[in-house]
Design brief:
This protein is of the alpha/beta class and about 220 residues long. α8 packs antiparallel against α9. It has a 5-stranded parallel sheet, sandwiched between helices. It contains 10 helices and 5 strands. It is about 55% helix and about 10% strand.
């Protein structure tokens, strides 16, 4: 995927999602002297991802100069068949004209998606991938009160497990034990999962201690 970033327009918010970049991606940042800096974390993410990366600085300040740069670059990429899909990251509605042009001229051969960030661009481009599924899951909304109730319950269970396994050889494996407990739909399921994860002897001992905790 090619990401063409109108950095003067979106600044750091447009770089959100840089941690999801892949080696197969290519990022091109278009910027000017009025916005030459971005947060180091995004640059580190780009470097660590192994993706292609280039920048294009506005040579002479002119009205909509970077917009023309980006439009020209899209034509260069598609004309040379360097990519099939490009995501234009900007809040400028004028880029809709580029999307409409390529949709009319090439149909599905070349596609342009518009987005306000790298993260949103992965979704808008309709990518069917593990990172797209992860982003969709992370972007789901949840009731704050419900989250807090689950958070408090998680702390309560952890405290009880700490007390139940304090001083034992299992005290360093509380997260695994809690995973077994919370994934179990019945005592039998918890028992079998304990044996599977910890082995017969340890699994039986862990299950025995869990059964002894009346408030779990």
């Amino acid at each position: 995927m090619y990401f063409l970033i109108d950095y003067e327009n979106v600044r750091n918010s447009g770089m959100r999602g840089s941690e999801h970049l892949l080696p197969s991606d290519h990022v091109i940042v278009f910027y000017s002297g009025s916005a030459p800096q971005t947060e180091m974390r995004h640059l580190d993410n780009i470097k660590n991802s192994g993706c292609g990366f280039e920048v294009c600085k506005l040579l002479t300040k002119r009205k909509n100069g970077l917009d023309f740069y980006i439009a020209t670059k899209v034509g260069e990429l598609f004309g040379a068949e360097r990519c099939k899909n490009a995501v234009l990251i900007s809040n400028d509605s004028g880029f809709q004209a580029i999307r409409d042009y390529w949709q009319d001229r090439s149909g599905t051969k070349h596609r342009v998606a518009l987005s306000e960030s790298i993260e949103h661009g992965i979704i808008t481009a309709g990518e069917n991938s593990e990172r797209a599924r992860l982003i969709r899951a992370q972007r789901k909304s949840m009731d704050i009160g419900q989250f807090y109730a689950a958070y408090q319950e998680n702390l309560r269970i952890r405290q009880m497990l700490q007390e139940a396994f304090e001083g034992t050889e299992y005290s360093g494996r509380l997260q695994e034990i809690q995973d077994v407990l919370q994934a179990g739909t019945s005592p039998k399921v918890i028992y079998l999962d304990s044996l599977r994860r910890f082995g017969r002897k340890d699994g039986q001992e862990i299950y025995r201690r869990l059964k002894a905790c009346k408030d779990l």
